[in-house]
Amino acid sequence: MSELSTSMSWKSVLRSSAMFPDLAQPLTWGSRGRCSTLSQVKLLLVYQWPFWSTARLSGFWIAFPWLVLSGVVQREKLPAFERLLFRATKGNCHLKFNDLLKPVIDPHTGESMDKAVFVVFFSGETVRTKITKICNAFGANLYPFPFSHNSQMTMYNECRARLNDLENVTITTRRQKVETLSEIAAKLPLWSEKVFCEKAVYHTLNLLNFDTSQKLFVGEGWCPKNRVDDVRLALDRAVRRANAQVPSMVEERKPSSRETPPTYYRINKFTEIFQTIVESYGVAQYHEVNPAPFLITSFPFLFGVMFGDVGHGIIMAAFAFLMILFEKRLQYSKNEMVQNLYKGRYIIFLMGVFSIFTGFIYNEFFAIPLDIFGSRWKYTSESNMACGIDNCDVPSEVLPPLHPYPLGFDPIWKGSQNSLLFFNSYKMKFSIVIGVSQMVLGICLSCVNAKFFREPIDIWYVFVPQMIFMNSIFGYLVFLILFKWLKNWNSEACMSDPTCEPPDLKAILIGMFMSPGNVPPKLKLYDGQAFVQVLLLLAALVAIPWMLLPKPFLLKARFERTKYQIVKNNSDLETPASDVDSHHHGPFNFGDTMVNQMIHTIEFVLGAVSNTASYLRLWALSLAHAELSDVFLEKLLYTSIETGSPVGIVIGFSMWLCATIGVLMLMESLSAFLHALRLHWVEFQNKFYNLHGTGRKFAPFDFAELRQAETES
Description:
Elements: H1 2-15, H2 38-48, E1 53-57, E2 60-64, E3 67-74, H3 78-88, E4 93-99, E5 104-105, E6 112-113, E7 115-122, H4 125-137, E8 141-143, H5 149-205, E9 209-211, E10 216-218, H6 228-242, H7 272-281, H8 292-306, H9 310-325, H10 327-330, H11 336-343, H12 345-362, E11 377-380, E12 383-388, H13 419-452, H14 456-486, H15 492-496, H16 505-514, H17 529-548, H18 550-561, E13 564-566, E14 574-576, E15 580-581, E16 586-587, H19 590-614, H20 617-643, H21 646-684, H22 703-712
Antiparallel strand pairs: 1-2, 3-7, 3-8, 4-7, 5-6, 9-10, 11-12, 13-14, 15-16
Helix pairs in contact: 1-5, 3-4, 7-8, 8-12, 8-20, 8-21, 9-12, 13-14, 13-19, 13-20, 14-17, 14-18, 14-19, 18-19, 20-21
């Protein structure tokens, strides 16, 4: 490319020589070209004979040595170039230039530039040196320029022939390069794959230890128990393919007490998303309880509680079902949003199914009640309140139906004046029941962990007091809710008792702390309520120091007992053991252990209150979803239908559809998903999962995983 650019620039210099006079023509001045004075001769030579020229003056021939430099320079630098030449030579040079019509490629930089051809006429080697330095400073490219016209044409033809040869070589080279690169492009994916695999293999081989005594490579790693035979078969197959003279062996050994195996779970494409959600919170310790199986049902159920609507659930389930149906097409999509939806297709499907289920419980289909089994209530002219259709002998008594609606809420509640009060009361209590139940399940799973790791201290001095504290207050609240729901307040015994009224559960719980042992008649639910509440309050107070104090002192005593151990090999000496607590995998320090236990105790006590209140988000989001559905239905769809205009109906339906999809199906569903995620991470998993933060995920040697990691990076 540099030689081609040089030749093209040289050709431009020679082609532009037509602007200069013929340098080989004889002098013509008057009839014979004679000059009378030397000044006339100098003037004549400057403008007509710029090379070695001769003139005959008064019968003599005089020779004047004129020199020339030619080349190309950037057009924008030309004024400064001309000005500097004039100053440096003190006017003893003559510059001629001509702009090139097309940009040329600079042979040094390879960039296309607008340039101009120049020719400098001068006299003397000193001036040549100055002009050459100036040309170099301005980045000008100098080229030889012959004196005579014939020499110019000869050199021009030679340059043009050389350019033709270079162009032919360039075309041939480009064609060969395209053919070669086309062959390489077809093989490049295979080569890249082989190089990638070789790099991964050699990187793994670098992790092996070399036994210099026996000249063996020894590799230690983890493998699932059910895949050990597969490893042996793969190793035998590799030995046969490599024609190895020495066989390779696989030995199993039990990990030492200091070694903690990585955590490995067998998952499939259905459970993968649930395991990913769990491990986003943290990786479990080896043999620690995995909450992913519980999330398969609890996560979509909590989402359905907040997003309960049959119509909305059908849309979500249908969308996820289509992704499952076309999962092979979506698997390799490059769109990040499509990939995220593809990975969560099964959990989205379950969320839609559970939304349908809770929608039947709430009896809502796009905020419209479904009267599938017929309402069990009716209105009469004798009362503003409805009564049961099979228990309405005296309408003024407003008795409920003897046989309630078989599935979910009766559709009549949707249009009643006290529907909001009724649904608020139910959903708020139901949220507390769900929350306390899930937190108690988390505490029970912590007992499973402690039992497996053989930590009786964690069972008796963590699990037991936590269960006592949680159930003494909030478990009792759940009991009150269920008792209030199950008691027949319309029974004859209750109707005959003037104090038999449904009490306010908030007042009962506040009175349990503010005035223990004193239960007003209006707040009484069962006999012996005051004694039970005092007993539960004392149990909750005792559970706090039970959680705080015993465990640090018992750990200190256990450490003191095992501080010294008998040295093996029948030695009579005793050496101190390593100051390491086997359960916590770190140096034992009583002060740190005490402070840590104090933090956990305060966190659990305060968290029991805040976490229970946090589950009220189920009630809040369910209420918001229902109210937004009602507003969109009444203000957009029903209002447009009331106008009776077809255009208005189409516009109203379009607006209702856009609001349903954009606000409810996208924004509201994302909000419910994030709240369900928060409830599982903070309120559920922190009771038992990843408490010590020592878990690490099993990462097997897998080309697919390595390739995916490299692609993401």
